[in-house]
Design brief:
Strand content: 15-25%
Helix content: 40-55%
Keywords: Membrane, Transmembrane, Transmembrane helix
Distance between the termini: 103 Å
CATH architecture of the largest domain: 2-Layer Sandwich
Number of domains: 4
Strand order of the largest sheet: 24-25-27-28-29-30-31-32
Bound molecules: ligand LFPHGCPZ
Number of helices: 29
Organism: Massilia soli
CATH superfamily of the largest domain: PAS domain
Protein name: EAL domain-containing protein
């Protein structure tokens, strides 16, 4: 494939591919996939952001709460420590027993509902308490042991515990009491309910699983509130900062945003934990919402896209199918020899079709309209074909557009682009208009015209033929009958045509017929008619004549003279005549058949009268025609009925006078008409085809006879048999000759076939071929009637013949006619130059014989020596000759 073609192919492929990409069912899923990615990226990103924000908020909340909780604890612990300090001061100042009373009196003791206070002496015995308790020993309590063992003046915070002095769970906050010397004097203790430290738990902020707690530097929980549950004890393993980190709480494993903050002045740390689940519940809800929205949106998108894709795919398929149909239709219509006009009806306000607008056409339509497709499109039909209303086409189109159906018509175009062309239109309805398919049928019309012409005219001369002659005669008769006039009909047969045709060949014969036809035609008036009836027969119809046969004689004479004019054919001047039989309507017949039959009979009479004349019809003429028919009928049975016989005419050597051969001549013994001459029936047999079986019979009989003479001990003579044109042209002639020879046992060299020049010249190549075949068999050939035909001398050289027979017409006047003498001499000389023997026919007189002998003619045949005689007589002659010969030889 060339590079350019490949590139344009690739471009077309790319265009097709891009075009496909534009299809909704392909582009939409791509777009939808992108949209889905965007939706999910945005959704997940939003979720991630919101999750992060929610976590940060939770962490911030946790930090905020630890701040608040620290402040609260600072206040609570400050108040407790203050109480401890006041109590310590008071005990150190007033003694253990009065200290509480004094403080209580001054309202400096906290409510016993919140705190219980206790003063423990140096022995660990509760010296005073509020509310009052039994004097029990708390020496085993850690706070006592810590303070009694250390001089540090720092507050001590115990585990959450119960003891004998206070069975409720509580925490001990304690300080050391010193005496004036600083020695250990006891301990002041504030016991606090652990719930006190988590009372700031706000459910609204901390949820049901938020944690608020306090634990010591020993890692042990002093108080922990989770929802409504308060607990203590247990260790806090991880030490976290106050940033609200997410960690699993040690006491219940729940993940919380946890913040821890050590408290100033006490070995305590505050703890705030916000449940991750609760803190992120809002976000989780939103996350689910987002996911649901994105999921359901995606699903809806996928479903919608799938639905649209299916519809689009179906529409694309439909569109493609339509496009393919349109392309196929366009390609087909482009390739079509027909022009297509797709037209839309145009209506007026009343809904009547006023015209048609051309919407689409093909290339052929361009040629037919002389306008380009672009110009045609949108044009009103009346603009393209101004005459289409006048010629009825508009009405036809309207009828189809309104009523449907198919309209077809043929018309001869007057449009300038296709003027004179014959067109065929087929109009079919379509939605909103019509489609007209227009075809150029000029060729068909011309062919039809040609066929019509051929059916009524003679191919060779172009003249009306037999059927048209009859039609025209019929017309002329009807017209004459109406007008009270006459019609003259001349049946014309050329004289001498056969000679030209046989001698110069068919082409020359055809040329002659054409020339003669033209000459005759030139003699006629406009309303007369000349036709060729067949062969060399012509018919002239002279219409509208008066009832006087003499009125037509001038034109008939003119025709005769025109035909008689010499004609130059193939460089040879020939001359033909014509015999005319003339009839007049109505006197010689009332119908074409009768008139033609009578004209034919008159023509035959003209022939009999010596040819080249015209003969008006007379009733008695029909007798000869009837006679011919009777003769033909008899000829059909003659062979079967054994009515044929052969006569034999001797052929004599001019110099020795010896019979060297005989010519077989047929005779017909008719049961009613007596002996019928071959001159009368051979042509009839030839015409009817009966010559083939008759000729076969002659060949067989002659060969048998020759063989019989030979068998009878007579010297061998050559048997000459005439072969007619039809016989010679018959395919199996050579076979038939061979058959006759083999049937009779006659040697081939004893048989001679006589053919005329005319026969050979009909088809020279085939004739020479056939003659060569016969010669190859050993059969000799002679040319009969030499001099009457038109053998070309160069052709004569190629004939495989042995003898030329000078026609008897040149012999009969040999004594008186210098012309005939010249011809005879020329033939003799020619024959000799071609190494042929020359035989003169029809020698009747001694003068003729002498002339021929003196001029070196070789052989003769004629009444002078013998008429044709029956076989027995011929046998006697041959026997006599043989005996005379024998006598001579004995004498010698
Ligand atoms: N195809 C066939 N044609 C045949 C056959 N037999 C005869 N013919 C042809 O018929 C034509 C008339 O023949 P016919 O009447 O027999 O006349 C022949 C002779 O009788 C006649 N002739 C012979 N000598 C003379 C004479 O001195 N004067 C004179 N006026 N006539 C004479 O000539 C005829 C022979 O002519 P040709 O054949 O040219 O030698 C005739 O054309 C025959 O050929 C047949 O069997 N088949």
């Amino acid at each position: 494939m060339p590079g350019g073609a490949r590139a344009s192919g690739a471009q077309a492929g790319l265009r097709r591919w891009l075009g496909r990409g534009m299809d909704t069912h392909i582009s939409l899923p791509i777009f939808a996939a992108i949209l889905l990615v965007v939706i999910w990226v945005v959704t997940l990103r939003t979720i991630a952001n919101q999750g992060e924000a929610a976590q940060q908020a939770a962490r911030a909340s946790s930090r905020e709460l630890i701040d608040t909780y620290e402040a609260q604890l600072a206040r609570n612990l400050g108040s407790i420590d203050q109480t401890l300090k006041v109590l310590k001061y008071s005990v150190e100042l007033n003694g253990a027993s009065d200290a509480l009373r004094q403080l209580n009196r001054h309202g400096l003791l906290p409510s016993g509902l919140v705190f219980s206070v206790m003063v423990v002496d140096r022995d660990g015995i509760v010296a005073a308490s509020n509310p009052a308790v039994r004097q029990v020993s708390v020496a085993d309590q850690p706070f006592f042991q810590v303070h009694s063992a250390s001089k540090a003046d720092t507050p001590y915070v115990s585990q959450t515990t119960t003891d004998a002095a206070n069975p409720d769970w509580h925490m001990h906050f304690s300080r050391r009491i010193g005496d004036r010397n600083g020695q250990f004097a006891g301990v002041v203790v504030v016991a606090v309910d652990p719930a006190y430290f988590t009372s700031g738990y706000e459910r609204s902020r901390m949820g049901g699983h938020g944690a608020l707690g306090l634990f010591g530097s020993d890692g042990m929980l002093r108080s922990l509130r989770v929802g409504d549950t308060i607990s203590w004890g247990g260790a806090i393993p991880a030490a976290l900062d106050d940033s609200g980190q997410l960690a699993a709480s040690a006491w219940d494993g729940v993940r919380r945003y946890t913040s821890m903050r050590p408290l100033h002045g006490f070995a305590l740390t505050a703890l705030v934990g916000l449940s991750e689940t609760e803190q992120l519940a809002g976000f989780e809800q939103r996350r689910r919402n987002y996911l649901w929205l994105a999921g359901s949106g995606s699903l809806a998108l996928v479903l919608v896209v799938a639905l649209v894709c299916v519809l689009s795919w179906q529409m694309t398929r439909t569109r493609r199918r339509i496009r393919r149909f349109q392309e196929t239709y366009a390609a087909a219509s482009e390739a079509s020899v027909d022009a297509f006009f797709v037209m839309r009806s145009q209506f007026d306000a009343k809904g009547t079709i006023t015209d048609f607008v051309i919407e689409a056409t093909n290339t052929r339509a361009e040629k037919m309209s002389g306008m380009r497709k672009q110009e045609l499109r949108g044009k009103l039909l009346c603009e393209v074909m101004p005459g289409y209303r006048a010629n009825g086409m508009f009405d036809d189109l309207v009828k189809v557009a309104i009523l449907g159906g198919v309209h077809e018509a043929e018309w001869q175009s007057s449009h300038p682009a296709v003027a004179q062309l014959w067109l065929h239109r087929q109009v079919v309805p379509v939605e909103g208009g019509v489609v007209a398919i227009v075809r150029d049928i000029t060729e068909r019309k011309l062919a039809e015209e040609r066929i019509r012409h051929m059916a009524h005219h003679d191919d060779l001369t172009g003249l009306p033929n037999r059927s048209m002659i009859r039609d025209r005669l019929d017309q002329a008769i009807r017209q004459a009958s109406r007008n009270g006039r006459c019609v003259a009909v001349a049946f014309i047969d050329l004289d001498g045509f056969k000679l030209v045709n046989d001698g110069l060949g068919h082409n020359a014969g055809d040329e002659l017929l054409k020339l003669v036809g033209m000459r005759m035609g030139d003699c006629l008036r406009h309303n007369d008619m000349l036709g060729r009836f067949g062969g060399d027969e012509f018919v002239v119809i002279l219409a509208d004549q008066p009832d006087d046969p003499l009125s037509v004689t001038p034109v008939l004479e003119k025709i005769r003279q025109a035909v008689n004019e010499p004609i130059l054919l193939d460089g040879q001047e020939v001359q033909v005549g014509c015999s005319m039989g003339v009839v007049m309507y109505p006197r010689d017949g009332a119908d074409p058949n009768t008139l033609m039959m009578n004209a034919d009979a008159a023509m035959y009479r003209a022939k009999e009268q010596g040819k080249n004349v015209f003969q008006f019809y007379a009733r008695e003429m029909n007798a000869s025609v009837e006679e011919k028919l009777v003769l033909l009928e008899g000829l059909r049975n003659a062979l079967d009925c054994g009515q044929f016989s052969l006569l034999y005419q001797p052929k004599v050597d001019l110099r020795s006078g010896r019979i060297f051969g005989v010519e077989a001549l047929i005779r017909w013994q008719h049961p009613e008409h007596g002996m019928v001459s071959p001159a009368r029936f051979i042509a009839l047999a030839e015409e009817s085809g009966l010559i083939i079986p008759i000729g076969d019979w002659v060949l067989q009989t002659a060969c048998l006879q020759a063989r019989a003479w030979s068998d009878a001990g007579l010297p061998q003579v050559t048997m000459s048999v005439n072969v007619s044109p039809r016989q010679f042209e018959e395919k199996r002639l050579v076979e038939r000759v061979a058959q006759a020879l083999s049937d009779s046992g006659l040697p081939a060299h004893a048989l001679e076939i006589e053919v005329t020049e005319g026969i050979i010249m009909r088809d020279l190549a085939q004739s020479v071929g056939k003659m060569s075949e016969l010669k190859a068999m050993g059969v000799t050939l002679s040319i009969d009637d030499f001099g009457t035909g038109y053998s070309s001398l160069s052709a004569l050289k190629s004939f495989p013949i042995s003898t030329l027979k000078i026609d008897k017409s040149f012999v009969s006047d040999l004594a008186d006619s210098a012309d005939d003498q010249a011809i005879a001499l020329a033939v003799i000389s020619l024959g000799h130059r071609l190494n042929l023997r020359v035989l003169a026919e029809g020698v009747e007189t001694e003068q003729q014989r002498r002339f021929l002998l003196e001029n070196d003619c070789d052989e003769m045949q004629g009444y002078l020596f013998s008429r044709p005689v029956p076989a027995a007589e011929m046998q006697t002659m041959l026997l006599a000759q043989a005996q005379a010969q024998a006598t001579l030889e004995v004498a010698a």
